[in-house]
Each structure stands twice: as C-alpha cells, then as structure tokens.
Design goal:
single chain; about 475 residues; alpha+beta; Beta-Lactamase; Helix Hairpins; 4 domains; 5-stranded antiparallel beta sheet; 17 helices; rod-shaped; EC 2.7.13.3; histidine kinase; ATP binding; ATP-binding; nucleotide-binding
C-alpha cells in the first residue's frame, strides 16, 4: 500500500483522531518537510499554525471529515515558508482522515494572468467601442456584396437623420445616391485607398439639400491580403463650405468696391478736363481755339470710354474657360491702377517673356493679379520704388508639367517673418481696419482650383526691403478643373 501511495503524483497524508501525522507519502514529505525533518507523530495545527485562523478552510474541512464524516474540498494559500496555493481534498478514514493535496500555484498564476488579460482586453474593447460610437466623424464598415452597411456609428447615421440600426443592412447607393460614389468604392474594393476625398451630393433622406463631406475609404484585408470589406471615415463640412463660399462672395464684393473706387478716380480726372475744356470753348470767340478745345475734350472722352470698356472686360466672369496670355490679363489689371500710378513715385518694370496662352477662367485669374498688384502698390505708397512684373515659361519640377510663372516683386516695406506663415489664412491682414483678410486666401483658393501654385518671399532690411509673389499656372489649368 505504501508503494502505491508513493507512486501517486498527489501528496497524501493520514491524520489520527488527534490530528497527528501517521503517514506521508514521498510527495507529501517533499512538500511539507523539504528539509528532511521528521514530522510523523506531530500535530498538524501545531506544526503549521498558519492553517488556523477564523474561517480557515483547513480547519473547516478537516473537522468536517473527522467529526461528521464529510468529504472536504477547497483551495487555499499558505504563506512562508511555502508561499504556494494548494488544492486539498479530505476524506474520513477508520481511525482519522486521509488528505490529498497538490501545489496549484502555477495554475492559479496562469488563471490570474488570463483573467487579467481578459479584463484588459475587455477594457480596451470597451474603450475602442466608446471611441467608435462617440467619434466626431462618421465611421462605417461595408461588405463587398453591393456595399451593404455592416455597422456604423451614431455620427454616420446622423447624416441620414436615422439611428445606426435603421441603416445596417441597407446599401451605399440606397442611402447616398451620389454620382460616382459606387465607382469610387469599386476602386477601394480593388485595394486602392482613397484619402481626404471631397464629396458633394444629396442624401436619399434629404434630396433637396446639397451636402459636402471630406471622406477617406480603406480596404479591409485578411491575413492573406484578400480584401474582405471597406471602412469609411466621413467628416461633413457643409457648414464650413457654406461659410467659405460666403467669405469668397464677401471678398468679391470687397473687390468690386475697390474697383469702383479706382474707376471713379480714373474717370473723374478726364471728366474734369472735359468740363474745363468746354468752359474755355464757351468763352472764346476764336474758332481755331474752340476747335482745339473740342478736340482735346474728345480725347478725354475717348479715355473715359476706354476705361469703361476695360472695366467691363475686367469684371467679365465667363462660365467657360478661355485661352489667354498672362500679358493680356496683367495689362488689363494694370489699367485700373493707371491713375494711381501716374500720381505716385512708383516705377513699373514689365518683362513679358511667356507668350503661350493659358486656358483658364480669366475673370478669376484677373482677380488674383489685381489683388497682388494692389498689395504691392499699397506696400510702396509711402516711399515709392520699383514694381517688377515678369512672366516666363516654367516647369513644375514636382509634377513635370509645363506652364507660366508670373512674378510680382516690389520694393515696399516687406512682411514681418512672424506673419508670413499666416498670409493665406482667412481674416489675417497686415492692413488693420483697411483690409478684409480675405484677398490672399481667396487668391490661393483660385490658384489651387487651377492646379497652380503661389509662393511668397519677403525681407525687411534698411534700404533693401521688399516682397516677391510667384504664381505658376499650367497651360491646361481649366481643363484639369473639369
């Protein structure tokens, strides 16, 4: 019998009615007397006092087996010198009890580790789910079967004025019948992501309202690289877009006001001359002098007619793109400032080397040129100086595209370095109450829509201050916009 117990993997010992050890198998000796001490005949609770405390499972189970002939089973931790967790089973015997136990410390540690890991994973899952549900952008997951909504967050559902559960199961084109959107998804399903794409259209739940979004779509792939779905992140920018359009319209009105002021000044001078010439003609009896006065008056009226015609052309906003040279547009813009230039110490130096026309919306480009010319003249209004205007054929080295570079260089006061990074931001101005802060912002928007670039360099040094604006436009700018 002793050989049978020694072969067991569990530790086994017998206790008599006084709780004295009467037998221990080999494994029990290894666990309870690792130093080789003799514990036979010793009382369990005296030898291991840490088993005795209020509510002790050792005492409860052993007494239950000893006194009431019950089977006891429990797990408990024993501190120094063992520092282990035990799983214990106690059974009644003829002259006491028999106890089976094993060290389950590693099992407990593994279980605790798994429990802790599971709790952490659940915490992270809850955090991710909270972020997903409450994100300030619309998030959605689509399958590849007709691009059906598998899940979406509250913000995405709010685009349709619905709850997420009311959208799940419906298709993309059913909810958003926007031209070109399905073709866009076809490209993503082929594995090509789309990032920050401007989307314009109406929803099936609000077909009469034009909405604007910035969207990004990404393919969802399995471990072998197969595309299994599509995720979408959408930010509605309808309010911002409408605000932007209102600001652009405001700047257009401001530009019209500045133009009207310039035109009034340009026309007033020749009209005053005509008035004076007619006054002189009326008061002379010399027919030769009268004729000369009338010829001079006719010249001034022709000047008024030329200014009027140029003004009408200047503010013409064709809905179709036109092929026009930058020299034509610059001279058109300059004509509005002729009176101002004639009465100021500003010298304009023109170098028009590029003669190939650019296909563009000339009214928009003329607005940009006029704005840059006005800024240059404002910067030199006090001290005067030279305004260099140059055009030349140039290449955008990032894309390899050919186009025209337009340069405006003035000898004005220059722009403080701390302001240069903000020049193209809306409402930023260095002119105080005299500026709207929209001119350069609108100008950059026009150049961007024409797939061009606009850059600025400036310095402030005694006797060597000035600013250079450089615009580059591709020859086929308007074709790219279509």
């Amino acid at each position: 019998m002793a050989q049978f117990f020694d072969a067991a993997t569990d530790a086994i010992f017998f206790l008599d009615r006084d709780y004295r050890f009467t037998f221990l198998n080999r494994r029990a000796f290894e666990v309870l007397a690792p130093g080789g001490g003799d514990i036979l005949g010793r009382v369990l609770f005296e030898l291991y006092p840490d088993t005795v405390y209020e509510g002790s499972p050792y005492v409860k189970a052993y007494e239950g087996s000893m006194e009431r002939r019950e089977v006891g089973e429990f797990e408990a931790y024993y501190p120094e010198p063992f520092n282990f967790w035990l799983r214990v089973q106690s059974y009644p015997a003829d002259d006491g009890i028999i106890v089976f136990f094993r060290d389950v410390t590693q099992d407990r540690l593994l279980h605790e580790s798994l429990r802790s890991k599971s709790e952490e994973e659940e915490r992270q899952r809850a955090e991710i789910e909270s972020v997903y549900a409450n994100a300030p952008i619309g998030l959605a997951l689509f399958d590849l079967n007709d691009y059906t909504y598998l899940r979406l967050n509250d913000r995405q559902a709010a685009f349709f004025g619905k709850r997420p559960e009311e959208v799940v199961g419906r298709t993309l084109t059913e909810m958003a019948p926007i031209e070109g959107l399905r073709e866009l998804f076809d490209g993503v399903a082929a594995g090509v992501p789309v990032i920050n794409f401007p989307l314009v259209g109406a929803l099936v739940t609000d077909p009469d309202t034009v909405r604007y979004w910035t969207v990004s779509y990404f393919p969802v792939t399995s471990s072998d690289g197969t595309v299994t779905g599509i995720t979408a992140a959408s930010l509605e920018v309808t309010h911002q877009k409408k605000t932007e359009m209102a600001l652009i319209q405001s700047e257009k009105l401001a530009a019209v006001g500045r133009l009207a002021s310039s035109i009034a000044h340009e026309i007033n001078n020749p009209l005053e001359a005509v008035t004076n010439l007619l006054y002189l003609a009326e008061r002379t009896d010399d027919l030769t002098e009268v004729r000369q006065y009338l010829r001079d008056a006719e010249v001034e009226l022709r000047r008024v007619a030329a200014i009027t015609a140029q003004t009408l052309r200047f503010h013409k906003q064709s809905t179709d793109a036109q092929a026009v040279t930058m020299e034509e547009l610059i001279r058109s813009a300059l004509s509005i400032f002729q009176g101002r230039l004639a009465n100021s110490p500003i010298e304009v130096v023109e170098c028009f080397h590029a003669q190939q026309p650019v296909r563009c919306f000339e009214g928009e480009i003329r607005q940009v040129l006029s704005n840059l010319l006005g800024n240059a003249l404002d910067s030199m209004s006090a001290e005067g100086g030279r305004l260099l205007i140059r055009t030349q054929t140039a290449t955008n080295w990032r894309t390899g595209d050919r186009g025209v570079a337009i340069l405006f260089g003035d000898q004005g006061t220059g722009i403080d370095a701390k302001f240069r990074a903000k020049l193209f931001e809306p409402f930023f101005t260095t002119k105080g109450i005299m500026g709207t802060g929209l001119g350069l912002w609108v100008s950059k928007g026009i150049i961007d829509r024409h797939h061009g670039t606009i850059a600025v360099r400036s310095r402030q040094m005694p006797g060597a201050s000035g600013t250079i604006f450089r615009i580059w436009l591709p020859f086929d700018a308007a074709v790219r916009r279509s």
